[in-house]
Amino acid sequence: MIERYRLIDYEAAKEGFERDIKENMHFGPPPNYKGKYLQLEFTVEDAGVFTTPWTATLTYAPANGGGEVICAENRHEYYNNKESDVPKADKPDF
Q1: Domain range summary for the chain, segments of one domain joined by +
Q2: Which of the listed residues 29, 42, 81, 82 has the most CB atoms within 10 Å of its CB?
Q3: Are 5 and 39 in contact (CB under 8 A)?
Q4: Whole-prediction pTM
């Protein structure tokens, strides 16, 4: 797998968002946001599984309001046990 990450401006992201709205019924970029977007392009090459390499592109916009997103390491849990411990590893698992 080959991954390429880029920061792109609104004009570069606009065509992809318009295609995504048309083909996938998504809502598009946040209204009135003309800043930077994160674009990921990846190519999968695996002759044992696919007959030809294939590529996809994903463009990410900032979350509405730009607030923090809840994840496993987030100490600001919004559901049960607000004081739960953050998972920690003694050594890296990669």
Answers
A1: 2-62
A2: 29
A3: yes
A4: 0.58
